Amino acid sequence: MKLKTLHDLYVDELKDLYSAENQILKALPKMVKKASSPELAEAFKEHLQVTEGQVERLDKVFTMLEVSPRGKKCKAMEGLLEEGKEMMSMDAEPSVMDAALIAAAQKVEHYEMAGYGCVRTYARLLGFEEAAELLQETLDEEGDADKTLTELAESIVNEEAMEEK
């Protein structure tokens, strides 16, 4: 796809995020199973439901644009998730694995926050205010997920990992 305009870039980035979210939908159940902390497993389960809503929101944005969300694979997310998958295959103490899961998940959240911040801004510049609001809602959710992961890491998981010998 040739990017001639900000609109072209907006659509391309939305497709990238759509691919990323769908990859995350496949990865989160594996992370739920791998987590030993009940609080972490619950956070991943909740984010799975949130991510389903985010995909629905993206579908609405694509419907407004009258464009298909298909046609792009988010290679960055593929790499982040592959790195997480590799880490999950390692032999680690449960609490250390939980700390590693949080680190992997936060890398994903930060990628998403950067992407959603950009497309939200493009939507505003292009006059797509309804889409901008939907994208801001997702951006807020990604920030909330990141905060939840930080709180779990700082209040429970990292302390437990420190106790492993």
Short description:
With 165 residues, the chain is mainly alpha-helical. It has helices at residues 6-34, 38-65, 75-88, 94-125, 129-163. The protein has a single domain (6-66, 73-85, 93-157), classed as Ferritin, core subunit, four-helix bundle (Ferritin, Up-down Bundle).
Topology readout:
Blueprint: H1 6-34, H2 38-65, H3 75-88, H4 94-125, H5 129-163
Helix pairs in contact: 1-2, 1-3, 1-4, 2-5, 3-4, 4-5
Number of helices: 5
Could you give the distance between the termini?
Answer: 52 Å
**Rg, please?**
17 Å
Helix and strand succession? HHHHH
Characteristics of this structure?
165 residues; mainly alpha; Ferritin; 84% helix
Structure description:
With 165 residues, this protein is mostly helical. It has a single domain, classed as Ferritin, core subunit, four-helix bundle (Ferritin, Up-down Bundle), CATH 1.20.1260.10. Helices cover 84% and strands 0% of the residues. It contains five helices and no strands. Helix 1 packs antiparallel against helix 4 and helix 2 runs antiparallel to helix 5.
